[in-house]
Amino acid sequence: MLKGKLIHPEILDALGRAGHGSKVLIADGNYPFSTGVAPLARQVFLNLSPGLVKTTDALRVLVDAIPIEAAAVMTPGDETPPIFTEFTELLPPEVSLEPLERFAFYAASRDENVALIIATGEERIYANILLTIGVVK
Questions:
Q1: Which residue, among 96, 132, 135, 97, has the nearest Cα to 116 in the 3D structure?
Q2: Has residue 4 been placed in a domain?
Q3: CATH code assigned at 119
Q4: 116/14 Cα distance (integer angstroms)
Q5: Number of domains in the chain
Q6: Are residues 80 and 126 in contact, defined by beta-carbon separation less than 8 angstroms?
Q7: Cα–Cα distance for residue pair 134/137, rounded to 1 Å
Q8: CA-CA-CA-CA torsion for 41, 112, 72, 126, nearest 10 degrees?
Q9: What's the number of CA atoms in the CB half-sphere (13 Å) around residue 23?
Q10: Disulfide check for 14: which of 23, 73, 75, 116 has CB 3.0–4.6 Å away?
Q11: Dihedral-angle region of residue 58 (phi above 0 means left; psi in -120 to 50 means alpha; beta otherwise)
Q12: Residue 2 falls within a domain, yes or no?
């Protein structure tokens, strides 16, 4: 029996095997999970139905479970998607969003340091976030 906010066994296992510098991708329902991911990363599918589970739901739980030292987002160009405000509110104050162009984000998400990919049912566009695990202090 677990009392914490994070109780998903596959996510706990993947995070337990990850370390400083490992990355976690939380992706929306439009993300290309068969081609836009690191081949050795653990994939966990939480996309039960459109709108369930949201990217921000997964982020909210992960913020309490792991130290986050960096966060990258996929940008559409000049506009700032509204979900970025929610990401910023959920992340620790010292972590700012690093904007990456779409194909640069895909490349970063295929990196060998990506340990975990969480597929969500998020319907908002550009609702992908790539977290870098920091050091436990």
A1: 132
A2: no
A3: 3.40.1650.10
A4: 6
A5: 1
A6: no
A7: 9
A8: -50
A9: 24
A10: 116
A11: alpha
A12: no
Could you identify the residue written with the tokens 């969003």? Answer: 97
Three-class HEC string of the chain: CCCCCCCCHHHHHHHHHCCCCCEEEEECCCCCCCCCCCCCCEEEECCCECCECCHHHHHHHHHHHCCEEEEEEEECCCCCCCHHHHHHHHCCCCCCEEEEEHHHHHHHHCCCCEEEEEECCCCCCCCCEEEEECCCC
Q: Looking at the domain assignment, is residue 75 inside a domain?
A: yes
Structural tokens at position 77 = 């160009």
**Residue position matching structure tokens 């986050």:** 68
d(CA 57, CA 53): 7
| pTM for this model (two decimals) | 0.97
Q: State pLDDT tens for residues 117-132.
A: 999 999 999 999 999 9
pLDDT tens digits, 1-12: 788 899 999 999
Query: How many Å separate Cα 125 from the centre of its chain?
Result: 14
